[in-house]
């Protein structure tokens, strides 16, 4: 990981939708940001803070999947910049009885940077269908 080599989201909020390589029964999500020590600015205010995780069977612009069902909220968590750079968050009701093709990370807030939010790495854990 190199400082600045991230998925940049404009502002303090944003979302990333990831198409999974196969249908997956997700059990956890891992997020990674850089450490404060390697940041050129000496801060990590661009790190996500409060995040919600949703899944869907198909790309859902309006939050509705192909079966007419809304996307499913799997949980919310707080990425803590005072802890390790790599943090894993278990998802509720995991493993789910249904497998999904898409996962959406909705960043509700970051650690104070008004201009942008950076996501360095996301990993989805689970069992392939």
What brief labels describe this structure?
129 residues; mainly beta; Jelly Rolls; six-stranded antiparallel sheet; two-stranded antiparallel ribbon; 8 strands
Q: What is the name of the CATH class?
A: Mainly Beta
N-end to C-end Cα span: 31 Å
Helix content bin: under 10%
Name given to the CATH homologous superfamily: Galactose-binding domain-like
How much β-strand is present in the residues? over 45%
Number of domains: 1
What are the low-pLDDT stretches, counting only 5+ consecutive residues below 50? 60-65
Mean pLDDT: 87
Query: Which word captures the global form?
Result: elongated
What does the main sheet amount to? 6 strands, antiparallel
What does this structure look like?
It is found in: Nucleus inner membrane. This is SUN2 protein. Its main location: nucleus. The strands form two sheets. Strands 2, 3, 4, 5, 6 and 8 form a six-stranded antiparallel β-sheet that branches. The chain is mainly beta and 129 residues long. It is elongated. Mean pLDDT is 87; it is low at 60-65. It contains no helices and eight strands. The chain has a single domain, classed as Jelly Rolls (Sandwich), CATH 2.60.120.260. It starts with 6 loop residues before the first strand and ends with a strand.
